[in-house]
Fold this sequence. Notes:
Elements: E1 2-8, H1 14-27, E2 32-36, H2 42-47, E3 56-59, E4 62-65, H3 69-83, H4 85-91, H5 107-121, E5 127-131, H6 135-155, H7 167-174, H8 181-201, E6 206-212, H9 216-231, E7 236-244, H10 252-269, E8 274-278, H11 286-292, E9 308-312, H12 313-316, E10 318-324, E11 333-338, E12 341-346, E13 349-354, E14 362-370, E15 373-380
Parallel strand pairs: 1-5, 1-6, 2-4, 2-5, 6-7, 7-8
Antiparallel strand pairs: 3-4, 9-10, 10-15, 11-12, 12-13, 14-15
Helix pairs in contact: 3-5, 5-8, 6-8
Amino acid sequence: xxxxxxxxxxxxxxxxxxxxxxxxxxxxxxxxxxxxxxxxxxxxxxxxxxxxxxxxxxxxxxxxxxxxxxxxxxxxxxxxxxxxxxxxxxxxxxxxxxxxxxxxxxxxxxxxxxxxxxxxxxxxxxxxxxxxxxxxxxxxxxxxxxxxxxxxxxxxxxxxxxxxxxxxxxxxxxxxxxxxxxxxxxxxxxxxxxxxxxxxxxxxxxxxxxxxxxxxxxxxxxxxxxxxxxxxxxxxxxxxxxxxxxxxxxxxxxxxxxxxxxxxxxxxxxxxxxxxxxxxxxxxxxxxxxxxxxxxxxxxxxxxxxxxxxxxxxxxxxxxxxxxxxxxxxxxxxxxxxxxxxxxxxxxxxxxxxxxxxxxxxxxxxxxxxxxxxxxxxxxxxxxxxxxx
Length: 389
C-alpha cells in the first residue's frame, strides 16, 4: 500500500491538500482512505459531508475516517486495569469505570496511530492519505511507536520473563507480589502493535508531503520541519506551496505579497521539488473546488533517507556515520552517547537511535556538519575491536 503523510505549517491548508489528494487519487481509480484525527471534522467541512468514528464513503473510491479517540481510550484503560489487577490491588488503587473516563491529551494521536495500523493491514485500500497535525506535533506522533517500545523494554525487559517460574518464591521472600505474567503479556502485545505502526511509517511506500504558504513564516517552518523529518529518516517527496497568488498587476499591498511569495518559491526550488497550488480566491468547499486545486498526484513516493556507515579504517583509522540533516544549523546540534545508543538533538527535535553493531565497539572521535550532512567519526576501541594477525 502507498501511504502519504501530509503535514506542515499550521493554518496552511494541510487538510484541504489531504482531501484534494485523496479525491484526485480516487478519481484516478485508486481505492483511497483519508485518515484524520481532527476533532472539528475539517475533512468533512472541506468535502461537504459529515465524517466521524466510522469510515464514510464520500465519493466513488474515496473513504474518510476520523477515529473516535474517546471510545478507544476507555477500552484501553479498562483493559489495562484488568491486566494489572494484582499491582493495583497491591497499591490499594480504586478502579475507574468506563463511564467516568475522558480522553487525556494525546489520546487522539494514539487513536490515529492505531487506525493507521489497521488501515495499512486492510486489503480494502490502495492508497492511504493521512492528515497529520502541524509538523512539530506530527514528528512527535510518528516517533511515538519507537519511543514507547524503548520505554517498555527498559521498564519490563523481555528477558525477565525467563524467571516466571521463580516469581512465587521471590514474592514470598520479598514479602510482596512479583509482577504478574499478564503484565508482561500486555507489554509484549503492545510491543507487537507498536512495531506494526512503526513498520507502516518506515515502509518503502510511505513518504511525507510538506504543506506551507510561501513567505518568511512558511520558509522558517519548512527549514525546521525538514530537519526534524530527516532526523526521523522520513523522505519528503514534495513540498506543496499552497495558496500561491497569480502574477500580474496588483494593488500596492498585494504586489508586495506576490513578490514575497516569488522570492520564497525561488529559494525552495533551488533545494527541493516544489509543487505550487494556486489560490482559488476563496476557501475550497466541496468536491468541485477540490478538483480545481492542482495538487500533486500520489505518484511513487520518494526513496528513504539512508544513514550510511563508511569504512575509512585503512586511510584514517575511523568509521564515519553519515546522517543527512538538510537545513540543520551547527549551533543547534548536540550529540550524546549513552551505551549503545546515540542521542541526537537538532533544534527542537531529538531522537535516540541504536548504534550499528560495528560502531558499538568504537569510541566517538568527533563530528562535523558539512553540506547538510552530519558526519560522526568513530575510532575502534582496542578493548572491544577484533585484533588483527
